[in-house]
Write a structure and sequence with these properties.
By secondary structure, the chain is α/β, with parallel strands linked by helices. The chain contains 35 helices and 41 strands. The chain is about 30% helix and about 15% strand. The chain has a 22-stranded parallel sheet, with helices on both faces. Strands 3-4-6-5-7-8-9-12 form an 8-stranded mixed sheet, with helices on both faces. A 5-stranded parallel sheet has the order 14-15-16-13-17, sandwiched between helices. α18 packs parallel to α20, α19 packs parallel to α21 and α27 packs parallel to α28. The termini are far apart. Keywords: Repeat.
C-alpha cells in the first residue's frame, strides 16, 4: 500500500487506517510488499491458492493500491466481502489463500498501443513469493494461480522467468514444481482492447506453452471464465474487452461464460455463482488428485537435497535400459532417490510396485505376493502352485508397462525370486530400479554402466540439509533467529564435514541439536562442541556402516536411559512384529512421552498402515533399517565380552541357540524374539534339541526375571511350550507376548496366570487351533490389549475375562468365525475403548449389560450375520465414535439414542435386512458417515427432519430402502439434506425435483428398483441438476431410459455405469467425457453404439453385458488405445471389428457370454501374442 490514509467500511462502520502500518486484519496480513495473506489454515495446508489481480476499472474504490483486495469483492450487497477470504476459505478450510499486490497500470505502457513491460513485475513477484515467511510453494502441497485480466499474463511471466532466469534457485524451482493449475478470469491471451497482440505477447505465449508441454508434460490444469457482457470505461466506448478468441488463444477448452462485464467477472454474487463453482471445481480436482497421489507415493524426508542431478541421470539410464541399479553405502540416499523418482514418474506406468527393505525380511514369498497383488490385481492362494503365480508376474512385466522398485535387495537369490529376468525380455517399457550396498549382487543382470553410484552430498548440499534440521522451526519452542544462527556457523561447517555428507547422519544430528535450541547461547554452543567432538571420534572407524552408526549414535547417546531402552526394544524386538500400531506400543511401554521423544528425534517414524488390513488400523511405527542395524550393533558391542552379563535383547537364531545351549541364567535379558525360529531348516533340529535338553535339565537355573518382551510368533508348538515353561519361572516383568500364527491350544495357555502380573499386551492372532481360552487368562490383571483376530476356531470366552480384566482397553476378536457367545461379565470391562467383533458370523447375542462400557469409542460388529439385537445400553455410550453394523443381516432390534451423542461420527447399518425401526437419528448430529443401504424393511417416519440436522454429513447411503422411498423423496424435495460436505451419495428413488447443490460430491449412485424392464425418463429439473455436480468422479445409474445430456458437463467423471437403460443409453453429449476411464453398460435395449465412442481416449475398462439386442460394435472401438479390459456379454453380438487390433494395451478380453460371437483366428492370435488373456 502507499502511505497515507485509506478509508473503508467494515461491518457497517467506517474507520481510518494508516496504510503504512499495513491493512486491517480483515484485509489480510501483509507478508511483504507484493504478497498478502487472506487466510491461513491450522496445520499443514492441502493447497495454496494465489490470487493475481489485473487492470482496475475507473471506479475510485478500485485504486491500484487496494487492488489485491477490491478486485475480489463479491457483488452480494455488502461492501467488504472479499470472497476468497470468506466463501473460499469456508469451502476449503485447509487451504492457504494469498493475494498478490502490484501496480498494474505501470505494466501497461500505453492504452493506445497496448504495449507492455511485464518483466519487472514477474521478476519481483517470483522472488517475493518464496521469501522466508511468505513461502508460497514450499509446503509440498499444490499451488493454484487465480488470475484476472492482466494478472494471467503476469502469472505466465512468473513461470517463464522462474524457468529461465532463476533456474537453480531451489525455492523457486519448488514453487514451480508444485504449481498445478491456472484459473483465468478474462485474461487476454490473444490480445484485447487494452492489451494488443504484439511480438512480446506472442513470445510470452509461445515460451509458456513450450514450458507447459516440455516441463509440465501438459499436466497443468487450465480453467477459463469469459465475459459475456460489454464493458463501459473512460478509455473506450461500451464493448467487449476480451473477445472469445483471446480467452481461448492457447487452446484452453474448459471455458464458461458469465453474465458480467470485464471488471465484474471475478466478483460473484453468491457462493453458488457459476464463476465461483468453476473455480472450486478446479481446486477440488487438484486437491483430490494430490490426496490420491499420496496413497501412491512413498514418504520422503521433509527436505530432500542433492537429488536433482541424480534424478536426471537415473531417468536417462531408464530410457535406455530396463534395469538400473543404485549402489552405495547405507544412509547415503539410495532409497530417497528411488522414492523421489517413483513419486514423480509412477503416473507414466500402467502398474507400479515398491518392495521396501527386502533384505530384512526372511520370507521372500511375501514380496512375491505383493508383486502379484499390485501388478496383476490377483490374490495369492496358498492351495495353488506358486509357479503359476510367478509365471503371471513375469507375463505382466513383459506385456504391461510397469515400474518396480526393489529397495535393499540383499542377495542375488532375492533378485532371482523376484522375477528380475522378466524385465530383460519384455517389450512393453517396464522398468526396474534396484538399490543395494554391494554392486556385485547386480552383475548378472546389468552392465557396469547401468549402475549409478550414489555418492555423498557436497558441502553446500550438506549445509542446506543440516540447517533445515538444526534451525527449521518444526516447533516454535525450538526456533532461533538468524543472528543467533551466525554464532554457530563455524561449528556447523565442522559438523557437516564430520558427517561426511551422509543425509541420514545430517538429519539425525540436526534434529538432536535443534532440540537444544532452548538453551542459552553459551550453553547451547557447548552442546554443539560436544557433539562435534563425538562426531570426530567416529571418523577413525574403517567400516562404513560402523562409521555411520557411530555418527547416528550421538543422538542415541543423548537420550535419557529409559528412552535408550525403548529405542533398543524397537530396533531389536518390536520392529520384527510388523504393523504394530502406535497405541499398542504406548501400552507396551506405558510411556507416550518416551515414544514421542524417539519420533521427534527421527529415530522412529509414524507411517500409515496398509488400509486393507482394517479400516480401524491407521498409524503404525517404522524404523530406518540403518537405525535398526545401529541399535543391534549397540547391543552386540555391549555383549561382545560376556553375553550373559551384558546382553538385554536377543533376536538372531545363532545367538539364541548358543544362549540356551549354555544353560545359564540371565537376570538382565529384557527382550527375546524367536519369531519363525524354525523358519530356516538348518536351525530347526538344533534349536529344538537345545531347548529340549535345557527343559529336561534338573538344575532349572534359567531365571529371566527382567524379560519384558517375548515374540514367539510363527513357531511350532514344541518351541512355544518349552520357552513358555522356561520363561514361566519368573514372568513378573513380561509386558508383551506375541504368539501369532502358532498352533497354541487351551492347555498350553494355562501357563499364563497371575504370575504374569505385568503383561499388558497379548497377541494371539491367527491361532487356528485355539478353540477356548483357559479361565486363568482372567488372572492377567494388567492386560490392556488382547488380540485374537483370525483365530477362526475360537468358540467362546471365559467369564473370567469380564470378571478380572478390569484394565482391558482393546479386545479384538475379528474374523473369529466360530465365536458363538460372549460372557455377560464383559459388561464389567469399564476401561474398554475398542471392541472388534467383525466377522463373528455365528455370534447371536451381545451381553445385555454392554451399555456399561461408558468409555467405549469403537464398536465394530460388521458381518455378525447371526446377531439379532443391539442392547439398549449401547445408545447411552456417550463416548462412542464409531458403530459399525454392516452385514448384520439378522439384526431386527436396534438401540435408540435418546440423548445427543456428541462424538458419534460413523453409523453403518448397511445390509441390516431385518431391521424395521430406528427412530432417533436426529440425536446423532455429529454424524459424518451414515449408511442405511439395503435396509429394505426399515421405516423412519421422521427421516427427512432427522437428516436435516446432520450438518457435517460426508457419506450417505439410502439405496434399496424400499420403506423409506417417500421419506427420501421428501428430504430431497424439501431441501432438508445438508450437502455442503457430502462426498458420496446413494439412493434408489429418483425425484422429480432437482438435486441439491453438492459442491464436493465425488460419487453418486441412483436408480429404480432391482428387477424388471421398467425404465423411466428423468425430469428436466433433475437432469439439469446432474450437470452441476462438477466434482463427480463416479456416476452409477439404474433403470433410466438414457443418461441425460447434462452429464456431458461432468468433465471430472472417471467412471460411468448404466444399468437397465433404454434403446439409447449414451446421449451424444457424453462424447465430452474425454477423461472417462471405466464405462459399463448393462441390460440396455440398444441395438448399436455411437461412433463417437472412440473419442473416449482414456477409457481403460469397457463392459457391455446383457445387452440382448446389441448386434454390432462401432469401428471406432479401435481408437480406445488405453483400453485394458473389454468384456462383452451380449447374445446377438456376432463379431468384433478388425479395428480391435489397435487396442495395443488390451490384457483381458472376455466374450464368454457372447455365445454367437466368433473371433477371427488372426485377431485371436495377434491379441494372444501381445499377452492378452481371452475368455471364450
Amino acid at each position: 500500500m502507499a502511505s497515507g490514509e485509506n478509508t473503508m467500511k467494515q461491518s457497517g462502520t467506517e474507520g481510518n487506517h494508516n496504510a503504512s502500518a499495513g491493512p486491517s486484519p480483515s484485509r489480510g496480513k501483509k507478508l511483504c510488499d507484493g504478497v498478502y495473506s487472506l487466510y491461513e489454515p491450522e496445520g499443514q495446508p492441502e493447497v495454496e491458492i494465489v490470487f493475481i489481480h489485473g487492470l482496475q476499472s475507473d471506479d475510485p474504490k478500485d485504486a491500484c493500491n487496494d487492488a489485491y483486495w477490491t478486485t475480489w469483492l463479491a457483488r452480494d450487497g455488502s461492501q467488504d466481502n472479499c470472497w476468497p477470504q470468506t466463501w473460499l476459505a469456508a469451502v476449503y478450510p485447509k487451504a492457504r489463500v494469498l493475494s498478490i499486490s502490484y501496480d498494474a497500470s505501470r505494466a501497461l505502457k500505453s492504452t493506445s498501443s497496448g504495449a507492455m513491460d511485464l518483466n519487472p513485475f514477474g521478476e519481483t513477484l517470483v522472488q517475493e513469493m518464496v521469501f522466508s515467511g511468505v513461502d508460497i510453494g514450499q509446503h509440498g502441497c499444490p499451488v493454484v494461480f487465480v488470475c484476472h485480466c492482466l494478472g494471467g499474463l503476469i502469472a505466465k511471466q512468473i513461470v517463464v522467468l522462474g524457468h529461465e532466469r532463476f533456474k537453480g534457485d531451489k525455492r523457486i524451482e519448488k514453487l514451480l514444481k508444485n504449481l498445478k493449475a491456472f484459473v483465468f478470469y478474462a485474461t487476454p491471451h490473444g490480445g484485447s482492447k487494452l492489451v494488443k497482440m504484439n511480438p512480446d505477447l506472442a513470445r510470452l505465449n509461445n515460451t509458456f506453452e513450450a514450458i507447459q508441454r516440455k516441463v509440465y508434460n501438459n499436466k497443468c490444469k487450465f480453467r477459463v471464465v469469459a465475459e459475456a457482457h460489454e464493458t463501459s470505461s473512460k478509455w473506450f466506448s461500451s464493448s467487449m474487452i476480451v473477445e472469445e478468441h483471446s480467452v481461448r488463444y492457447a487452446g484452453f477448452d474448459r471455458v464458461i461464460h458469465v453474465a458480467a462485464d470485464h471488471f465484474n467477472i471475478c466478483k460473484p454474487e453468491t457462493d453458488r455463482s457459476t464463476s465461483f463453482l468453476h473455480l472450486t471445481g478446479c481446486i477440488e480436482e487438484v486437491v483430490t488428485e494430490y490426496q490420491s497421489n499420496q496413497d501412491k507415493i512413498w514418504g520422503l524426508p521433509s527436505l530432500v537435497v542433492g537429488v536433482d542431478a541424480k534424478l536426471v541421470e537415473l531417468r536417462e539410464k531408464l530410457k535406455e535400459r530396463p534395469i538400473v541399479g543404485l549402489v552405495g553405502m547405507g544412509g547415503v540416499g539410495k532409497t530417497t532417490l528411488s522414492k523421489a523418482l517413483f513419486n514423480t514418474d509412477w503416473g507414466n506406468y500402467d502398474k507400479c510396485c515398491c518392495l521396501e527393505d527386502v533384505k530384512s525380511h526372511s520370507n521372500i514369498v511375501d514380496f512375491q505376493k505383493q508383486l502379484l497383488r499390485e501388478l496383476c490385481d490377483e490374490r495369492w492362494n496358498e492351495n495353488e502352485d506358486p509357479k503359476d503365480y510367478l509365471r503371471k508376474i513375469r507375463q505382466c512385466i513383459q506385456t504391461k508397462k510397469v515400474l518396480v522398485v526393489i529397495d535393499d535387495v540383499g542377495t542375488e537369490k532375492n533378485l532371482k525370486a523376484l522375477q528380475v529376468e522378466a524385465f530383460q525380455h519384455g517389450c512393453s517399457g517396464s522398468r526396474l530400479i534396484v538399490t543395494c550396498r554391494n554392486k556385485a549382487i547386480l552383475s548378472d543382470y546389468m552392465l557396469e554402466g547401468d549402475k549409478i553410484e550414489v555418492d555423498v552430498l557436497d558441502n553446500d548440499e550438506s549445509m542446506e540439509l543440516f540447517r533445515h534440521y538444526a534451525f527449521h522451526a518444526f516447533n516454535a519452542a525450538y526456533e532461533i533467529g538468524s543472528e543467533e544462527r551466525e554464532k554457530f556457523e563455524h561449528e556447523a561447517v565442522n559438523i557437516i564435514h564430520a558427517c561426511g555428507g551422509l543425509p541420514l547422519s545430517l538429519e539425525v544430528i540436526g534434529q538432536h541439536l535443534r532440540k537444544r535450541n532452548h538453551l542459552l547461547g553459551e550453553e547451547r554452543l557447548d552442546v554443539w562442541k560436544e557433539a562435534l567432538k563425538r562426531l570426530m571420534e567416529a571418523i577413525s572407524l574403517e567400516d562404513d556402516d560402523e562409521k555411520l552408526w557411530s555418527t547416528l549414535k550421538i543422538s542415541y547417546d543423548d537420550l535419557k536411559p529409559f528412552v535408550k531402552g525403548f529405542f533398543l526394544d524397537f530396533a531389536c524386538i518390536l520392529c520384527d512384529a510388523k504393523n504394530l500400531k502406535l497405541t499398542t506400543v504406548v501400552r507396551i511401554w506405558d510411556n507416550r512421552g518416551g515414544l514421542q521423544t524417539l519420533i521427534d528425534s527421527s529415530l522412529i517414524k509414524v507411517a500409515k498402515l496398509n488400509s486393507k488390513l482394517s479400516i480401524f488400523e491407521k498409524n503404525g511405527l517404522v524404523m530406518h533399517d540403518q537405525l535398526r542395524d545401529m541399535g543391534r550393533w549397540i547391543v552386540r558391542e555391549l555383549a561382545h565380552k560376556d553375553v550373559h552379563k551384558h546382553i538385554k535383547h536377543m533376536w538372531e537364531k545363532d545367538v539364541v541357540k548358543k544362549f540356551f545351549e549354555d544353560e545359564e541364567e540371565s537376570s538382565i535379558l529384557e527382550g527375546l524374539s524367536m519369531k519363525n525360529m524354525e523358519g530356516l531348516k538348518v536351525h530347526k533340529s538344533h534349536i529344538l534339541q537345545v531347548l529340549m535338553n535345557m527343559n529336561s535339565s534338573k538344575k532349572h537355573s534359567h531365571h529371566y526375571a527382567n524379560l519384558r518382551l517375548l515374540n514367539l510368533s510363527c513357531n511350532s508348538i514344541n518351541v512355544v511350550k518349552i520357552v513358555l515353561r522356561t520363561c514361566g519361572i519368573h514372568p513378573q516383568n513380561l509386558r508383551w507376548l506375541s504368539l501369532n500364527t502358532t498352533p497354541i491350544r487351551k492347555n498350553h495357555l494355562r501357563i499364563l496366570n497371575a504370575n504374569f502380573k505385568a503383561l499388558c499386551v497379548l497377541h494371539l492372532r491367527n491361532c487356528d487351533q485355539l478353540v477356548e481360552l483357559p479361565s486363568s487368562i482372567g488372572d492377567l490383571s494388567s492386560l490392556k490389549e488382547l488380540d485374537l483376530a483370525w483365530s477362526c476356531s475360537l468358540r467362546s470366552l471365559p467369564e473370567s475375562i469380564g470378571l478380572k480384566l478390569g484394565n482391558l482397553q482393546v479386545l479384538i476378536l475379528s474374523k473369529c468365525y466360530r465365536m458363538r457367545e460372549l460372557p455377560e461379565s464383559m459388561s464389567n470391562l469399564v476401561q474398554l475403548l475398542e471392541l472388534h467383533l467383525d466377522g463373528c458370523m455365528e455370534l447371536k447375542r451381545l451381553p445385555s449389560g454392554l451399555g456399561n462400557l461408558k468409555l467405549l469409542k469403537v464398536l465394530n460388529l460388521g458381518m455378525c450375520e447371526s446377531l439379532e439385537v443391539i442392547p439398549a445400553g449401547v445408545g447411552q455410550m456417550l463416548k462412542l465414535e464409531t458403530l459399525y453394523l454392516s452385514g448384520c443381516r439378522s439384526l431386527h432390534t436396534m438401540c435408540e439414542f435418546d440423548t445427543k451423542m456428541p462424538h458419534l461420527h460413523t453409523l453403518d447399518l448397511h445390509g441390516c435386512e431385518e431391521l424395521r425401526s430406528f427412530k432417533s437419528l436426529g440425536n446423532l448430529h455429529r454424524l459424518r458417515f451414515l449408511d442405511l443401504g439395503k435396509c429394505s424393511e426399515l421405516y423412519m417416519p421422521d427421516l427427512a427432519e432427522s437428516v436435516g440436522q446432520l450438518h457435517d454429513l460426508q457419506f450417505l447411503d439410502l439405496e434399496r430402502c424400499e420403506s423409506l422411498e417417500e421419506e427420501v423423496a421428501e428430504a430431497l424435495r424439501e431441501g432438508h439434506l445438508h450437502t455442503d460436505h457430502l462426498e458420496r451419495l446413494m439412493f434408489t428413488i429418483i425425484p422429480e425435483t432437482a438435486l441439491p447443490s453438492c459442491p464436493r460430491l465425488k460419487y453418486l449412485r441412483l436408480g429404480y428398483g432391482t428387477s424388471g424392464e421398467v425404465t423411466k425418463e428423468l425430469s428436466n429439473a433433475f437432469s439439469e441438476s446432474l450437470g452441476n455436480l462438477v466434482q463427480l468422479h463416479e456416476l452409477h445409474m439404474r433403470g433410466v431410459a438414457s443418461v441425460p445430456e447434462y452429464v456431458g458437463n461432468l468433465t471430472q467423471l472417471k467412471e460411468l455405469s448404466v444399468e437397465r437403460s433404454g434403446r439409447n443409453p449414451l446421449s451424444d453429449a457424453l462424447r465430452n467425457l474425454v477423461g472417462l476411464q471405466i464405462l459399463c453398460v448393462t441390460g440396455s435395449r440398444c441395438r448399436k453404439l455411437p461412433e463417437w465412442l472412440g473419442r473416449l481416449s482414456q477409457l481403460r475398462t469397457f463392459t457391455l453385458d446383457e445387452c440382448e439386442k446389441l448386434e454390432r460394435l462401432p469401428e471406432s472401438l479401435g481408437l480406445l488405445t488405453q483400453l485394458r479390459s473389454l468384456k462383452l456379454g451380449c447374445k446377438k453380438l456376432e463379431g468384433i471389428p478388425d479395428s480391435v487390433l489397435g487396442l495395443t494395451q488390451l490384457t483381458i478380453l472376455n466374450i464368454r457370454k457372447s455365445t454367437r460371437l466368433t473371433l477371427k483366428e488372426e485377431v485371436r492370435h495377434a491379441l494372444t501374442e501381445r499377452g492378452c488373456t481371452i475368455f471364450s
